[in-house]
DNA sequence: TATGATGGATAAAAGGTTTTATCAACCGTC
DNA sequence: GACGGTTGATAAAACCTTTTATCCATCATA
């Protein structure tokens, strides 16, 4: 169907080799006269020749394509925003270097090796690497280089990791809140995520920092967020006087803000809220959300660059890059005032000045 | 480097043909005995054979890959959320059918034909198709099927479109607001987007619906959103008494909400706000945003399905699918009350009950 | 004993490109 | 006149798979 080198060669009255040389360079022992070259170019132009990159890839075993592996892409638009940011960062860097991006989702753990080594990609970036031992082994011996993005690094396998210092990030939160005078902080976790390496690192950091700052923190201060609207009200009514909340991710933090608002609990006057993952989303809440920033865009780009290097100069020693987190202080945190202690008021009906949003009646 | 059919064939002591037949079926005149088959399977297993899909694609000229073209992917994480939703919908449908997805960004308009026809993809979905005549011509004669997603359809070119009824969507907004008693509505546009077919369709719908509902609407009621914090305050101070705002997209709507909040303007008591594109984002604002919903996830999936059909049964007649919009009424709209007329109060310092979020002091 | 069907397997072409090795011709030099 | 260097160009292999055409037995039927 398509126009091939052969067609162009015939049209120009030369060999395939000549056309290949003129149009795509390389081939050191092949020399072409100026006139022949222009004739070839003219013919290619006239026939609208488009090189078949599949054939080229077969020959060169290079596709100039990088695969991005998402453990659960299914919910890209519903998940926390940093999934989008990772994709964004990786894509930006790839495109800048004229690489193509293909997305792999729900890669079977049994056939990881196969999927990655079928020749379609030159390398892969794996977001949120799973922990299964055999998967890691497959990856470590994969025929293409693989970089783990945004996964706390296990120590043993021979892979390169780009992640952030989750433990340090959690510490920032404690430091910030305790500097503002908060003593009791609720840690809001998400079901199903609590055994990922990232989550455990954050919780670990939080625990230790509390200990060092002499803040009381027990198992009871960890709650699991369900999507139930009443949860916040229940908690607010029945819990000891926490004045701070640390939400393990941005989406949960947003939910806390909204529920607080609906219950007439004023943030940050009555309650300070901090989230993990300072994303554009945090700018859109009201009040804007104080949150731990992992430089995710930078990390994603870095992961891509590591791959480029591996592909250019052969595989490097596996390394672990850990980016420090910072804290973006916004409007959702404020000093703990003594006045907050007398906060046991009815919460069933919002007595705040803002209407219950769901009802929307004046 | 990799293990090939040839290696397996040698290991099993049979021909390449036999291995190919056993491992990948097809080839009608090839028959294999049970014992031979098991021997082959065993050898393949032992050698960890992974079929080279590039070679296969070259032979079959099928890649089982669909390209998704984004005009400006550069800002995926900053742009309105429906870009993510489109990606999500397309991806879901592709993966469900075991297609691969590759993302193309900033495709050169000069070489559209080439990029799409280099054999890497079986088909493409183009989000926000540009209007240039020559680009459309190239696409219409492309060697692979192309579907335009979320682009108001020009009438002439021979392409298949999946889009929504932008004009009708805008009408819904007018109907809703006028039913609530609003008379003056501000249309908030975004610079640089105002000459896209979608934008003009929305504005057209809005204009006509106002006319039919006998609402006054002039050119002065169209403002362009800049990212300046003072814009809302300026507008609120100097404009005639609008009681409604229609923001051309979700992100702008969110910004309006925030600015209103900061200026102590209460939504929906003082002002009703409606956005275009009802996305998960609209659930997270406070109050939650009333917005026009285009069934974007459904549309994206449909676009993918159209491609599948083209690929299976040969090209179809080009068609135009237009999805109706609906209105998701949330908390940001409320009846226009007479009390609002006396609203000329100072706005420089927020006198609302909520603290200025940026300062965050109690 | 032909004839024909069937089961089991293979050779070889095709798909489009890259790249090495080879070749022909020409010019200049010793 | 033999040799060497340079320019211009090509043939052909290799990359790995799919698929058709072909082949050889074997066995049943007429």
Largest interface: A-B, 77 and 77 residues
| Low confidence ranges of chain A | 339-362
Gyration radius of chain A, to the nearest Å?
28 Å
Mean pLDDT of chain A: 87
Q: What proportion strand of chain A? A: 15-25%
Count the helices of chain A. How many? 13
The secondary-structure class of chain A comes to alpha/beta
The multimeric state of the shown protein is homodimer
Major sheet of chain A, described briefly?
6 strands, parallel
State the total count of DSSP E strands of chain A: 12
Overall morphology of chain A: elongated
Q: Encode the helix/strand succession of chain A as letters.
A: HHHHEHEHEHEEHEHEHEHEHEHEE
User: What spatial order of strands do you see in the largest sheet of chain A?
Assistant: 2-1-3-4-5-11
User: What is the CA–CA distance across the termini of chain A?
Assistant: 67 Å
Tell me the helix content of chain A.
25-40%
Give a structural overview.
- Two copies of one chain form a homodimer.
- Helices cover 39% and strands 15% of the residues of chain A.
- Chain A is built from 13 helices and twelve strands.
- In chain A, 46% of the residues are buried.
- Mean pLDDT of chain A is 87; it is low at 339-362.
- At the A-B interface, helix 4, helix 5, strand 2, helix 11 and helix 12 of A face helix 4, helix 5, strand 2, helix 11 and helix 12 of B.
- Strand 2 of chain A pairs antiparallel with strand 2 (100-105) of chain B.
